[in-house]
Design brief:
Elements lengths: L6 H12 L12 H13 L4 H19 L2 H9 L4 H30 L5 H15 L25 H24 L5 H20 L6 E3 L4 E7 L4 H4 L5 H18 L2 E4 L12 H12 L4 E10 L2 E10 L1 E2 L1 E3 L13 H4 L23 E3 L2 E7 L6 H7 L5 E6 L9 H16 L3 E5 L5 E3 L5 E4 L6 E7 L2 E3 L2 H5 L2 H13 L4 H7 L1
Parallel strand pairs: 2-3, 3-4, 9-10, 10-11
Antiparallel strand pairs: 1-15, 2-14, 4-5, 5-7, 6-8, 8-9, 11-12, 12-13
Length: 497
């Protein structure tokens, strides 16, 4: 095989670096298929080993730009020096790039074995996105499909979820490359053209289908964004003042809203310590016709939980199931604790809640609870929302600082509303707090990095979207069948070489 031109490695790195610009907050969605197409171009005619190197180049650019907020978390809030934070961020991003390396190797391997290699590359792309949703607890960030949120292609979301959006954009990118090479691969170009036209037509035609229906009356909600710094939050000298502030706030919010939302771990204490305080709020501020849902710490010896509690005209306690590695629990704890302050944070010793938990209840409605990181898991959120009337997610994105992280996180939360056909309420400590309609459209949004109370009205909905019912499994099975059945027999491959 001839020596590969060096420019391909640069193109792979550049394509990976440009890819995150297709997602929030930049939203240049057309860059997603362009970057995937460029990546497919660099892989053309390469060996498995070279494909792995090209994949690593793409992955390095992809994560160093797309997950640059990791540096903010480690340096500004983890207490690591700038050089150490830089080194850890590089280690984190380059470690994730190994998955793209494996993806590049697999794509190159299929290049000489599959009847339709460019279509196969698109499916391998989605397959590796799925792997990132569970491998080593998962890091389901920067999926290509999020880019379709505000495009005519958003009709795929309630049917096949974010992975369906990823496949559509990946096929658009690799298919364009196939059309440019139609003299070399006329069958693949013809097949892709048919698939693309069919997928685009179905997506656009199904955009206006409402898979769920309104239920009950509209709900007046008030979401408080306290904008309290981490330093002040857990300062014992401010304990009483914070509780008094939240108690007074409940009185004010309850005047104009039926459902009050406070963000993740809003109160500076655990549930047992604050039980009397919460009972008092329920009796004095909320009365019989109001409900408050707040994030709160729960201690059930010997375990600590990150929880959501519904009181007043509501009930239920939910313990977070999907924990953030290094943020809420520390892998290899015996080795890492004491290394830097980041690994010694009190909040890094949580336990995961049980897998079977009932929805929260408030004002006669069932609510699907999703705490922070949980909202980025598409299949998990779909399962959580099965018997719900709307989604509720709370977060504390203060760890992201003034980076692109909170905007990426918000885009993913909006996509969960679109996938499940249900409105979503989102309460955060410093933004982005918002109310989102069942189609992913923002109803109201509080400004970032400010103390605010957001009043918004949502319409609860019932029904089931295809994605909510079946999840990602049908799409993954179909892709696996295509990849398997499309491989040429070994004898045919040798005769082609």
């Amino acid at each position: 095989m001839a020596k590969l031109p060096r420019h391909r490695f640069f193109v792979a790195l550049l394509a990976g670096g440009l890819f995150p610009l297709g997602l929030a907050p930049f939203d240049l969605w057309w860059l997603i298929p362009v970057c995937i197409g460029l990546f497919a171009y660099t892989l053309s005619g390469t060996s498995t080993r070279t494909g792995a190197i090209l994949g690593a180049c793409f992955g390095a650019g992809f994560w160093l730009i797309g997950a640059s907020w990791v540096y903010v978390s480690i340096h500004e809030f983890g207490g690591a020096s700038a050089p150490l934070a830089t080194a850890l961020t590089l280690l984190f991003c380059l470690g994730l790039a190994l998955l793209h390396s494996a993806q590049g190797a697999m794509s190159s391997w299929l290049g000489s074995r599959h009847r339709f290699p460019l279509i196969a590359i698109a499916m391998v792309w989605v397959g590796f996105e799925w792997i990132r949703s569970w491998l080593l607890t998962g890091f389901p960030w920067l999926y290509a499909g999020y880019a379709v949120l505000e495009t005519p292609l958003s009709g795929v979301a309630p049917i096949v979820g974010v992975f369906g959006g990823s496949l559509l954009l990946a096929l658009l990118g690799t298919g364009t490359l196939a059309l440019l090479r139609n003299r070399q691969r006329p069958k693949e170009a013809a097949l892709w053209s048919g698939l693309a036209v069919l997928a685009l037509a179905l997506s656009i035609s199904m955009r206006d289908i409402q898979w769920t229906q309104p239920v009950g009356t509209s709900l007046r909600s008030a979401i408080h964004q306290p904008n309290i710094s981490l330093r002040d939050k857990w300062d014992s000298r401010q304990f009483v003042a914070q509780l008094e502030q939240f108690a007074a706030l409940a009185d004010v919010m309850a005047v104009d809203a039926d459902l009050l939302i406070w963000p993740e771990t809003a109160l500076p204490g655990d549930r047992a310590l604050l039980s009397g305080y919460l009972d008092q709020i329920a009796q004095q501020s909320l009365g019989a016709d109001k409900a408050l849902i707040t994030g709160i710490l729960s201690r059930e010896y010997p375990k600590n939980y990150n929880s959501l509690l519904s009181i007043g005209s509501g009930s239920g306690l939910y313990h977070k199931q999907k924990l953030v590695p290094f943020g809420e629990f520390v892998p290899f704890e015996d080795w890492l604790r004491g290394l830097i302050l980041f690994f010694d944070l009190p909040s890094s010793s949580f336990s995961a809640g049980p897998s079977q938990q009932a929805p929260l209840q408030a004002l006669g409605y069932s609510i699907a609870p999703l705490i922070c990181y949980e909202v980025v898991y598409p299949d998990f959120a779909a399962a959580q929302s099965q018997d719900s009337d709307f989604l509720l997610t709370v977060s504390n994105d203060i760890w992201f600082g003034h980076s692109i992280g909170p905007l990426q996180h918000f885009q993913m939360a909006r996509f969960r509303a679109l996938e499940t056909g249900r409105p979503l309420l989102r309460g955060t400590n410093n933004g982005i707090s918002a109310a989102v309609d069942f189609d992913g459209r923002v109803i109201a949004q509080a400004p970032q990095f400010s103390q605010a109370t957001l009043f918004a009205e949502i319409q609860p909905r019932r029904g089931t979207t295809p994605f909510q019912r079946f999840g990602s499994t049908p799409l993954l099975v179909l892709m696996a069948l295509f990849l398997t059945l499309g491989c040429r027999p070994a004898q045919h491959r040798s005769s082609q070489s």
